[in-house]
Amino acid sequence: MKSKKSKLNKFIWLLLGISVIMVAIVVVQFFFLKSSLSDGKVVEGTVVNGVNIAGLDENVAEAKLKDEFTKKADNFKLTLVHDGKSWDITKQDFEVNTDIHSILAAAQEREQLTDSYEKQKNLITNLQKEGKSVNVAINYVFVGLDKKIDEIIKEVEVEPQDSEITFYPDRKDKFEITDEKSGLRVDKLALYQNLNDNFLKSNKITLELPMIEEKASVTKEYNKTLTHCISMFSTNVADSTGNRKSNVNLALSKFDGMVVNPGDTISFNKITGPHSEENGYKVATIIYNSKFVDGVGGGICQASTTLYNALLLAGQKIDEVHKHTLPVKYVPLALDAMVSEYISDLKWTNTTDYPIYIHTWHDESSVHCEIYSHTLPVQYKTRAEVVKKLASNGDVVQKDVKKEYTDKVLFEGEYYRISYPRDGYEAVAYLQTYENGKLVQEEEIRHEIYQPQNGMVIEGVEKPSDGINPINDVSIISSSTHNMNNDICTVPTSVCP
Questions:
Q1: In sequence order, which ranges of 430-475 are alpha helices (DSSP H)?
Q2: In this predicted model, which residue has the larger pLDDT, 243 or 56?
Q3: How many CA atoms are closer than 13 Å to the CA of 219, on its beta-carbon side?
Q4: Is the pTM above the cut of 0.70?
Q5: What is the DSSP letter of 358?
Q6: Distant-in-sequence, close-in-space partners of 494: CB < 8 Å, separation ≥ 6
Q7: Any idea where the domains of the chain sit in the sequence?
Q8: φ, ψ dihedrals at 188, nearest 5°
Q9: Distance (Å, whole) CA 474 – CA 483
Q10: How far is 176 from 192, CA to CA, in rounded Å?
Q11: pLDDT digits over 212-233, tens only?
């Protein structure tokens, strides 16, 4: 118990000691500004900018400083020169400061005193005993001089100009890069040093403005490093209808020439929508409720899928992506990107340190997406595989109760096929990382299940009259699954050469 009490006492005394020291430092700093004044008189030996005010009463000292500084101001002329031009500063451009306390404060700052307690104590003692000759910066004596000099500096300084990139995706030379230009800054530290030194010697001062070259932050050579093709991806539209091709091309064209800066997040739907006829989209085949039907904007998902795969190969961070309910044949399974306004989107963020530039284009058989940026430290490829086939349950026969297919079937025993059974698939996609042509990492990025689909067969509902035999094609209601081999894409991804 005694040991704990002893430690507590030591801790309390330590806190008290620190508090005393802190108070002492504050008191010393407060009295420093008063240290050149003793009982209202300036101590012996005190000279300010050549004006001796030693032993004078404070009011007398201020009057003397005012008189001397006013005389200096009356005859003062500062001429600043640069590039064949000159600017004159005279007493009309500033006011004279003679407040002795602010002058002493300026002297403290100009002497660059430290916060050391011992050093301050010694300096204060010397001031009290011996006085001191101090040179106050001219901008403390002539108030407003700073503002006038700054106005002149604004006229002569030249901002550096960074090199800039203009992206022309449809040109052969897609990037136009300007030269950088250096700027000029006034070396204010050197200017005021020269000004203060000359102020002690003369009232007529002519100074050449000291200039410093300021390099541009972005050079042309740096911008050239941002123009490499880092990925490309293509999908086939050769067997698409005219309307579907038009929709794919229109959606992809919205990204042609886009610049995505570091940190930017992009939404496919926001860029391409609304997917309406008013916005130029046409009626073509879409997947709706696991069926191929006609709808406005059919083919847009091929545009999003093409862009998605190019982004993967460019090292972009995918924030949102969705599969189709049915396999599509223009891209390997688990590498598709289905979009639907207000429901499903493709979103990504540029998490690299560099902007990316997107170029999209098309020809009669394919659509293409190219991405340009700084060369990647690694190379990316994708790999997709089907890990399981999910067998379909065959056909479902549905009576034409609503009489929607009377032009196809009428009587019981007559059948019309709406769709074939389709097997489902479980598929996995991987992002591969290569360094110097060697595979160093393979990361699973997608694990998707495409559910099997039953075939749909419609049967008529009318009972045939005597003598009428229904058309009965047994092959129509066969439960065999439609061959899907041609519906699964195994085309490898592509990258820039």
A1: none
A2: 243
A3: 5
A4: yes
A5: E
A6: 232, 233, 234
A7: 1-32, 33-163+180-218, 225-487
A8: -65, -35
A9: 18
A10: 43
A11: 999 999 999 999 999 999 999 9
More confident position, 3 or 300? 300
Residue 463's contacts (CB-CB under 8 Å, 6 or more residues apart) are 411, 412
The residue ranges of DSSP E strands in 259-301, in sequence order, are: 259-260, 265-267, 283-288, 291-296
Query: Cα 381 to the chain's mean position, in Å?
Result: 26
Answer whether 279's CB lies under 8 Å from 269's CB. Answer: no
Beta strands in 323-394 (DSSP E): 347-349, 356-362, 366-373, 379-390
Residue with token string 């290569």: 434
pLDDT of residue 471: 66
Which residue do the tokens 């035999």 mark? Answer: 469
Average pLDDT over residues 404-408: 90
In the beta sheet, which residues pair with residue 175? 167
Angle between the 300-313 and 242-253 helix axes, to the nearest 10 degrees?
Answer: 40
- Residue 142, C-beta contacts closer than 8 angstroms, at least 6 positions apart: 73, 76, 94, 95, 96, 97
- The C-alpha angle 447, 316, 302, rounded to 5 degrees, equals 60
DSSP-derived secondary structure letter, 44: T
Question: Model confidence at 444, in pLDDT bands (50, 70, 90)?
Answer: very high
Using CA atoms in the order 260, 265, 271, 273, what is the torsion angle rounded to 10 degrees? Answer: 170
